[in-house]
Amino acid sequence: IISKSFVEGASLINNYPELDTFIKIEINEKNSHIFFFDNGSLKFFQDFNFGTNIIISDISKITSLNEKIIKKILSNSEFFKKKFEEDLLEKEFFKEKNFRKIKKKLIKDIASARIQEMSELMILKNINFKSFIKSNMLFFLEINDKSNLESMKDVFTFHFSKNNFYKIKSVNFSISENFYQNAYKIAYNGWNKEAIPITQNKHSLITRIFKSFFG
């Protein structure tokens, strides 16, 4: 059994041969992960029990909007790029309920505040990573969310980069044939920075005796 995070890190090194030290952040719908590769070796891994669902939940609690409606709003890739001041949500988002005046800026502010808090918990105030992080270190960021909330990528990148103190690069690690090929190569050939244990079958005394005579 080989760790998925280890295979992902090895795949990144294969794609960026000049790179062997980095941090990868993965934001899922219900959980998140972060791991640290140092000199080609997986040094640290940490799980978090929150993902993009906590952002949707916050917006829903404050605005009383249905989560499906919120996901539809945030699925617009241009939503966070536009500047809203007094702009209100369109009536089309209230087909099942009575129209209410909700500012688009409020939704942006709620999402941004929660994403900033996530970045602090995972990176900036995470005592497990303080000794690893250095200026200009490269972070790989993957937002692997079933809701397809493309609009939030820039907001995640901004807050996780700590105002450009780190370098952030967006990646997508869907399980593909290439992913499995990398896992197979590691299992078959090993990894130049890691010891990949191989289980050897134990033979009985009689089997070893016959094998010594007949090869």
Q: Give the CA-CA distance, first to last residue.
A: 30 Å
Which strand order does the major sheet show?
A: 3-2-1-4-5
How many helical stretches? Answer: 7
Structural class: alpha/beta
Mean pLDDT: 77
What can you tell me about this protein's structure?
The chain has 215 residues and is of the alpha/beta class. A five-stranded mixed β-sheet has the order 3-2-1-4-5, sandwiched between helices. β2 and β3 form a beta hairpin. α1 packs across α6 and α2 packs antiparallel against α4.
Descriptors for this entry?
215 residues, alpha/beta, single chain
Give the topology, please.
Elements: H1 4-15, E1 22-28, E2 32-38, E3 41-48, H2 52-63, H3 67-74, H4 104-124, E4 138-144, H5 153-160, E5 167-170, H6 177-189, H7 205-214
Parallel strand pairs: 1-4, 4-5
Antiparallel strand pairs: 1-2, 2-3
